[in-house]
């Protein structure tokens, strides 16, 4: 029998409540490593925590493609691990594998058909990148920009990204620059993050929304207005950005992290002034769901891998160690405690 540590959902946040580490509980169970045909025993290497998971803490996620986590059951999300034993011909011992529905536990017996092989070369040997730059956040960034951003090289466009120092925003800004935007301005929550955007990721400027007036800072750094807005946060920040967008601009509606703790529908309702600005300036604002573009995922991952391996995209990560810290890592990420992708290292 295997001694397995796992994380279960102990309680749901209260109405309009912020998640706390105490919503989760780590427990130990004994699990049989015996395999049926087609199954593999996997050891978890890295687990992901992401903003969308806040929706899964509710009874109703508000999204038909997301199931809520069940109380007193093991939590799941993006994960990467290694095959320790196998009765699946396609997955030999030592193979690196990943899944979007990886249980938050140290070991598990899984159906091999539900796992995807990981080529360590694709991620330059950094398996955690499967959960970030060369995974779902990276795909969200590249497909969001290319499907909804309408970047036109040589047309002197300005792109603004909110949540710019997070897993998705930090990649989206770099793609905007690579695809031809003249100015790429990121909005985030600390001077340290702003500095990382400019010095490490090549953004034109970073704006700390916790300091000074956002509207004034946007006017300073976006003197010709804003053409493309990659929206990860919603709320007053997005209102300020949209008010300065040029006619015919495009909002990539990727996430609304500032609204996830509130009891509102998704996407959340806009203020009357913002609705008028969208209408009068003919600005497109369409919800972007990366799962709607499955046929483009393989090509997108190849492109992301190439950019990472050649250094054209820099990857920032915040790594916490130990499955017992999953709840802390999740809550820290939800309040901006990470720079780049937040992952939890479970084992070596």
UniProtKB/TrEMBL annotation:
EC number: 1.3.1.48
Similarity section: Belongs to the NADP-dependent oxidoreductase L4BD family.
Enzyme class: oxidoreductase
Record GO cellular component, one term: cytoplasm
PANTHER family referenced in this protein's UniProt entry, alphabetically: PROSTAGLANDIN REDUCTASE, PROSTAGLANDIN REDUCTASE 2
Pfam family, one: ADH_zinc_N
Gene3D superfamilies membership: Medium-chain alcohol dehydrogenases, catalytic domain (3.90.180.10), NAD(P)-binding Rossmann-like Domain (3.40.50.720)
Function: Functions as 15-oxo-prostaglandin 13-reductase and acts on 15-keto-PGE1, 15-keto-PGE2, 15-keto-PGE1-alpha and 15-keto-PGE2-alpha with highest activity towards 15-keto-PGE2. Overexpression represses transcriptional activity of PPARG and inhibits adipocyte differentiation.
Protein name, UniProt field: Prostaglandin reductase 2
SMART domains reported in the protein's UniProt record: PKS_ER
Main location: cytoplasm
Catalytic activities: 13,14-dihydro-15-oxo-PGF2alpha + NADP(+) = 15-oxoprostaglandin F2alpha + NADPH + H(+); 13,14-dihydro-15-oxo-prostaglandin F1alpha + NADP(+) = 15-oxoprostaglandin F1alpha + NADPH + H(+); 13,14-dihydro-15-oxo-prostaglandin E2 + NADP(+) = 15-oxoprostaglandin E2 + NADPH + H(+); 13,14-dihydro-15-oxo-prostaglandin E2 + NAD(+) = 15-oxoprostaglandin E2 + NADH + H(+)
Alphabetized UniProt keyword annotations: Cytoplasm, Lipid metabolism, NADP, Oxidoreductase
GO molecular function: 15-oxoprostaglandin 13-reductase [NAD(P)+] activity
Complex formation: Monomer.
NADP among keywords: yes
Sequence ranges assigned to domain Enoyl reductase (ER) in this UniProt record: 19-344
Gene Ontology biological process terms from the UniProt entry: prostaglandin metabolic process
Localization terms from the record: Cytoplasm
